[in-house]
Design brief:
Shape: flat
CATH architecture of the largest domain: 3 Solenoid
CATH topology of the largest domain: UDP N-Acetylglucosamine Acyltransferase, domain 1
Structural class: alpha/beta
Number of strands: 40
Helix content: 10-25%
Radius of gyration: 29 Å
Strand content: 25-35%
Strand order of the largest sheet: 8-11-14-17-20-25-28-31-34-37-39-40
Largest sheet: 12 strands, mixed
Number of domains: 2
């Protein structure tokens, strides 16, 4: 795939400043861009590096003076970058509609139009699958589960019984939806598993990364709200309710019965204690451990998590500890020396 700079500007709806006859064959970062690379600048951080770049063209939101390479001026650099990356994405063979001969589909399963079910997939009784959905190789869909239209389950996804997955959902390889939650009672000297008879509901336009686990509820439901995006290696425990348009980054662990409001961001390796509520718009920084409920709009950091500004003060103070300890030792030595001199003086007076 190659396009002239002018063709690329037209595809992106960009204003072209400079020569449009050059050819671009890929999209890449400023630092590694060559004469056939379309690069981008979303802020001023890499401006100096861009001015030294040999790129074929740059996507940018305002013109740079005294810059010789073509500039594609757009309102939103990130939106234009997404479209450019789609243009140059690898051209893979699309999923073939129909049921692969090596798949096993129970009698009575309702399958919509243009559905693709790959080899070694297993679809149990009572399942419903909407139009244009892809069930890739090795997936297992449990009894009475409902999957909406234009949804994609990548290889080896497991969806247990009685789950509901909405429209335009993406679930990446090896993720498990609807497994029994981690709930035990100590009875007669042994840990006994509490039955989990609830369900999982995943709303429209949710993305779930690879190797995630979303546990079914004890009773009621575990729910992931529309538009929420979940990274790889995330654990969502039983009866968790996640709001709309949240961002949950890799290795987050959400304990049972937590309620997470709309637009929450949980950065990498955040852990939430059970039965707490995270208000809408909260941002929790990486590796934070949240043990109490958080009011809407707060920014939290640290373990145990405290408000961002307080956590920064704690971090700054902790960096000063070695120096403070040394000063404390010096002060102790001076006090000891003064006390010794005072004792000697009192002895001489007698």
């Amino acid at each position: 795939m190659e396009l002239t700079v002018k063709e690329m500007a037209n595809r992106l709806g960009a204003e072209l400043i400079g020569e449009g006859a050059g050819v671009v064959r890929s999209v890449g970062p400023v630092g590694s861009a060559d004469q056939a690379t379309l690069t981008f600048l979303a802020g001023d951080k890499h401006l100096a590096e861009l001015k030294k770049s040999r790129c074929g063209a740059v996507i940018i939101n305002k013109a740079i003076e005294e810059f010789s390479q073509p500039q594609l001026i757009v309102k939103d650099v990130n939106a234009a970058l997404i479209e450019a990356l789609k243009i140059f994405a690898p051209k893979l063979e699309p999923a073939v509609p129909g049921v692969d001969p090596m798949a096993k589909v129970a009698a009575g399963v309702k399958i919509g139009k243009n559905v693709s079910i790959g080899p070694f997939a297993v679809v149990e009784g009572g399942v419903e699958i909407g139009d244009d959905t892809i069930i890739a190789a090795g997936c297992k869909i449990g009894q009475n589960t409902k999957i909406g239209r234009a949804t994609r389950l990548d290889c080896n996804v497991v969806v247990y019984h009685n789950c509901t997955i909405g429209n335009n959902v993406i679930i990446k390889a090896n993720t498990v939806i609807g497994s029994v939650g981690f709930g035990y009672s100590f009875v007669d000297g042994a840990h006994r598993l509490i039955p989990h008879n609830g369900v999982v509901v995943i709303e429209d336009y949710v993305d779930i990364g690879a190797n995630c686990c979303v546990d079914r509820a004890k009773f009621g439901e575990t729910r992931i709200g529309a538009g929420t995006k979940i990274d790889n290696l995330v654990q969502v425990a039983h009866n968790v309710i996640i709001g709309r348009c949240c961002l949950i980054v890799s290795q987050v662990g959400i304990s049972g019965s937590c309620k997470i409001g709309d637009g929450v961001v949980l950065a990498g390796q955040v852990g939430l204690a059970d039965n707490i509520e995270i208000g809408a718009g909260v941002i929790v920084g990486a590796q934070a451990g949240v043990t109490n409920s958080v009011r809407p709009g707060k920014q939290m950091l640290g373990s145990p998590a405290i408000e961002h500004k307080d956590a920064l003060r704690v971090m700054v103070s902790s960096l000063r500890l070695p120096k403070l300890i040394e000063q404390f030792k010096q002060l102790c030595a001076r006090v000891e020396k003064l006390e010794t001199a005072k004792d000697d003086s009192n002895s001489d007076s007698h």
